[in-house]
């Protein structure tokens, strides 16, 4: 095998984009093996654009066809785990879309099944992990450049979604159809990056607004406090109603600070000695003198890096890395089993708001599912 | 009377600075009436610098002397309310330092007493209210330029305090001596400004770290979530251990956004129509086109204002305004009775962390005082 034949499950916006990337040759080690969508109307569109590519209405048929070596799941979140399992069961490599699922219980089943198939590649579309900017930030943290983390603060509100977006399908922004709003749909990348870079929080307390600025059942605004259990704290804010979106991520460490603006610019301040040592040997007057004299450079170095980013480049990078793992054992940037962390954090944020109290991670998965099912039941009752 | 004769109670760093401002003629309608400090050693310093100014060791003697028309209280926080009351009782105008007190119960007594003396001027040293930048921000909010507030977010960590600062006196950073740390000592201005500009929150939930990065009993780090009771939310973060301090205040409204950086630069984005109308009539594709074409100017105007600020100018402005109110009924920028809001918020933040749950404002003042007294008792026990 020189190229991985990818089966794309779900030929909507995302699936269509992936097909386009491959067709344009942007994923060097992949070709389109087959397309699949439960909507028969998509067949005509697929045949016109990709006349020589087989089209299936049932993904199981596609898995059994021998047309594909691997699949990607561009379908509603709830379906990701079962599709991942069915694929792996048939020795077809699986790249699941984010989020890995809606609740950890189902994601755990996927992970456990994947463990029984170590010879297969199981990845997740955490395309932001291939973003050089976040790789750089992770490296700085992992290197200990800014020391142990004291505080994280991410305001990420750059995904404005108008009412029309929510109205486009009946399942959008419902508990039954998506299992949440901004947390499961827009923010999973940041929920992943935050933990990938800064570690998994131990406790969260949240204030989540359901249908605050949009006529939807699920959340369009989230404010969360994180407790890392070692003294470090964090704040995570996201929403879909800020048309003047902010994306600002600050990490304070024992030996410096990183600020990421607009996922484009990284400002790194590295202290020449740990803050605790400065505290022990400098007076406020010493510091005021440094500051007034414009000599703060005596205590830290500043590095500013600007990154260019092209939409899609990160998706194709994940696809290429996924195929590279299948073909040449290239290390996976986003192992599928990592998908559970973001789901666990999203579940904890929901649960904290439902219970009105701080919750520990991992949350009780049966309790979460019971509460989620209550939301689904309430939603159905309101529809009737 | 053409100039107000000010009695300065407490001839330490702050009291000494105020004396200097007046002596240098920076407060045009004030003169130094008398100086006062319980430390007899300060008399020599005072006599040398201000040879013709009377010095008292007991502030009651100063109040009774006829040497002063007004006083300012540059003494530990706990003493502000009683000194305010004793002054007003003797028909001496009172400018209390921030915070107005340590707990609302004592501040309420001061406010209630001041109400019985409406002919006297009762002010508080909220010098940041005279900062043109915050006046501008308040005006924009009050004018409705950015519509109703949806979210506030202030990270204010620009007051680094080394261990030596805390070690300079036995009462510093103790429950008995100061009644708190960063909340009562460094952050009162922001706790005031936040409410002055954005309104009083209805509920708070906090994660407060006591002696986190410094060897102190009180708090050196605070993370708080605010709930304004009308859907609007907020986050307030402060600490004294960030030598690379951040000062970033963001306010999101229905019709725009304000970001204040470093208390120097204000960026105002005013939407040409409310966000809810954009949500109703624009699609994601419309917005993506505007954004990709660099045409976001079609939906908002941006204004950036840079301010210069000189340390001390804001203190002298409060003093001048206070004297102006005494002499010419000039409207008070910072009425003393406003001091209770910041104390109430600080109390709520402490109490939420002590009880481990969200608390409503105003907090039960007896409960707060009982909990504070427990901290004082614990502290004493540890000293023994």
From TrEMBL, chains A, B:
Domain Gfo/Idh/MocA-like oxidoreductase N-terminal: 5-118
InterPro entries named among the record's database cross-references: Gfo/Idh/MocA-like_OxRdtase_N, Gfo/Idh/MocA_Oxidoreductase, GFO_IDH_MocA-like_dom, NAD(P)-bd_dom_sf
Pfam families (alphabetical): GFO_IDH_MocA, GFO_IDH_MocA_C3
GO terms for MF: nucleotide binding
Domain GFO/IDH/MocA-like oxidoreductase: 134-258
Protein known as: Dehydrogenase
Protein source organism: Paraliobacillus quinghaiensis
Taxonomic placement: Bacteria, Bacillati, Bacillota, Bacilli, Bacillales
């Amino acid at each position: 095998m020189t190229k991985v034949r990818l089966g794309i499950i779900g030929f909507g916006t995302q699936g269509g984009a992936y097909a386009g990337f491959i067709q344009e040759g942007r994923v060097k080690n992949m070709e389109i093996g087959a397309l699949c969508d439960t909507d028969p109307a998509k067949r005509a569109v697929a045949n016109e654009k990709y006349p020589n590519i087989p089209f299936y209405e049932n993904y199981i048929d596609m898995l059994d066809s021998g047309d594909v070596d691997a699949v990607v799941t561009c379908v509603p979140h709830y379906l990701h785990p079962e599709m991942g399992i069915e694929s792996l069961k048939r020795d077809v490599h699986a790249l699941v879309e984010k989020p890995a699922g809606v609740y950890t219980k189902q994601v755990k089943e996927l992970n456990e099944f994947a463990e029984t198939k170590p010879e297969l590649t199981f990845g997740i579309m955490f395309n932001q992990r291939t973003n050089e900017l976040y790789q750089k930030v992770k490296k700085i943290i992992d290197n200990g450049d800014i020391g142990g983390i004291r505080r994280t603060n991410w305001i990420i509100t750059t995904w404005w979604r108008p009412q029309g977006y929510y109205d486009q399908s009946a399942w959008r922004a419902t508990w039954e159809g998506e299992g949440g709003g901004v947390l499961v749909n827009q923010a999973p990348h940041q929920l992943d990056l935050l933990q990938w870079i800064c570690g998994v929080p131990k406790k969260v307390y949240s204030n989540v607004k359901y249908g605050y600025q949009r006529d939807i059942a699920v959340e369009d605004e989230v404010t969360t406090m994180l407790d890392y259990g070692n003294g470090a704290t964090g704040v995570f804010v996201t929403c879909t109603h800020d048309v003047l979106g902010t994306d600002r991520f600050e990490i304070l460490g024992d030996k410096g600070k990183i600020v990421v603006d607009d996922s484009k610019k990284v400002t790194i301040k590295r202290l020449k000695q740990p803050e605790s040592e400065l505290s022990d040997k400098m007076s406020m007057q010493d510091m005021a003198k440094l500051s007034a004299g414009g000599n703060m450079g005596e205590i830290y170095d500043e590095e500013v890096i600007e990154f260019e980013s092209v939409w899609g480049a990160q998706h194709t990078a994940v696809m290429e890395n996924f195929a590279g793992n299948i073909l040449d054992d290239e290390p996976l940037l986003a192992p599928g089993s990592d998908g559970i962390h973001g789901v666990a954090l999203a579940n904890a944020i929901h649960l904290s708001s439902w219970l009105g109290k701080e919750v520990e991670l991992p949350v009780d998965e049966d309790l979460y599912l019971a509460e989620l099912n209550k939301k689904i039941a309430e939603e159905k009752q309101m529809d009737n």
